[in-house]
Amino acid sequence: MEYDVLVIGAGAAGLMTAIVAGRRGRRVLVLDHANKAGKKILMSGGGRCNFTNTNTTPANFLSANPHFCKSALARYTPWDFIAMVDRHRIAWHEKSPGQLFCDESSKLIVRMLLAEGADAGARVETGVAVHRLRAVDGGFAVETALGAVRAASVVVATGGLSIPSLGATGFGYEIARQFGHTVLPVRAGLVPLTLSGKHQARFEGLSGLSLPVEARAGGASFRDAMLVTHRGLSGPAILQVSSYWEPGVDLHLDLLPGLDAAAALRQGRAERPAAELKTVLAGLLPRRLAERLCEVWLPNRPMRQFRDAELSDMGARLADWPVTASGTEGYRTAEVTLGGVDTDEVSSSTLMSRRQPGLFFVGEVLDVTGHLGGYNFQWAWASGNAAGQAV
C-alpha cells in the first residue's frame, strides 16, 4: 500500500491533518489502534465536547518554548473551526466566556471530522496497530496490522499518556526517540490533586462540597470552582493549577476570592457580636467547611471576643490558605499530558522534524499543553492544519 501521507492516530489532531492534506490532493491513510476514531473527543466536555475557546492566545499554553505554538495558532483560529461546525449545522453554545460546547453530542464533531476527511479522500482505519517504522529512500516503510505501508510522510498524532482506558500509550514518544528526538519529562496535567495522612483527614466528610476559590501554585493563579473529593481536591480551579503544581511546590487557596475577608469578619462582628465565628463564616462559606475550619484551624468563640488584629490575621489566612497536596490522581483521570516531544527539534511553521525529513508531530504528543476550557482542542486543530499544509 502506497500513500503520500500516513497519519498515526485518529484523534483531533490526526483527523485535522488528514482533512487538510487530503484537500491538497494528497493520498492520506489514517491508522489508529483503538476501535473507533476520536475517543477523547467523544468523552470530552461531559459528552458535549468543549471544541474550542474563542479567547485562545499563546499565553494559554505551557511549553518549554512558549513561542512555538504562535505560528500554528495564528494560521488557524477558533473562528476557522467554528465555520466548519456551522457548515455542518452543528448547534453550539458558549457555556462560560469563550468556551464553546455542542448543544447535543460530541459524536457530531467526530462525525463531522470523518465526513470532511472522506470528502477530502482520506482513508481512516481503526483497530489497526502500527508495529514498526523505518526511514527508507523516498519516505518510510511501516509495518502495520493491515500489512506493509509505504508513505512519503508520516505524521505522529498519537497523543499523550492521559486516560489509558481510551487507548493512550507512549508510542509517539518511542517514534520520536527512534529518530533522535528529545522527549521532555512527562506528567499528568489538568488532573485532581490528592491529599494524604492528616491533610486528608482534616477534609474527611466534606466530599462533594464545592465553592469558588482562587488557586495559586508555581506562579500561576486561577479563579474558579473547587470540589472536595474523597481523595483530595478537584474542580476547574484545581485542574487548572495542577499543571503548574509539582511535589514540593506550595499550593495556596483564596477561600473568599474577590472579598476582603478581614473586612467581612469585622462587619460580621459589628452586626452579630454574640454569634460564634463558625456562624459568621457560614454566611461566607459553605456551612460544613466553615464548621470544619473552626474545628481544626480557627478559634471558635463569640465575635465580640475577637480583636481587630485577630480578625485581620484570620482574614489573611482565609485569603492565603496553604494546602499540602501529596500528588495527583495520575494519567487515569488527567485530561492532558504535560511535556513530550521537544519543540526545539520541530519546525513551528510546518511541524516537521528537524531530525528526520518527512516526519511530523502534531497535537498533544508535542510539549505544548493548553489550559482547561477548549484550548487543547484548538491546538489540535491548529497544529493539524499546519502539518496538513506541509506534508
Helix coverage percent: 25-40%
Largest sheet: 7 strands, mixed
* First-residue to last-residue Cα separation: 18 Å
> Quick one: overall form?
elongated
Count of individual beta strands: 21
* Arithmetic mean pLDDT: 97
CATH H-level homologous superfamily name of the largest domain: FAD/NAD(P)-binding domain
What is the percentage of strand-forming residues? 25-35%
Number of domains: 2
Structural description of this entry:
It is a single chain. This protein has 391 residues and is an alpha+beta fold. It folds into 2 domains: 2-188 and 338-390, FAD/NAD(P)-binding domain; 193-328, Beta Barrel (Elongation Factor Tu (Ef-tu), domain 3). The protein is built from 13 helices and 21 strands. The strands form 5 sheets. Strands 1, 2, 7, 8, 9, 10 and 20 form a 7-stranded mixed sheet that branches. Helix 1 links the parallel strand 1 (2-8) and strand 2. Helix 1 packs parallel to helix 5, helix 1 (12-23) runs parallel beside helix 13 and helix 9 (261-271) packs across helix 12. The longest helix has 16 residues, at 375-390. The mean pLDDT is 97.
Short description:
With 391 residues, the protein is of the alpha+beta class. The protein has helices at 12-23, 39-43, 70-75, 78-87, 107-119, 171-178, 197-201, 236-242, 261-271, 277-281, 287-296, 308-319, 375-390; strands spanning 2-8, 28-32, 50-53, 61-62, 92-96, 99-102, 123-126, 130-136, 139-144, 147-156, 183-189, 193-194, 210-217, 220-228, 232-234, 251-254, 321-323, 327-328, 336-341, 359-361, 369-370. The mean pLDDT is 97.
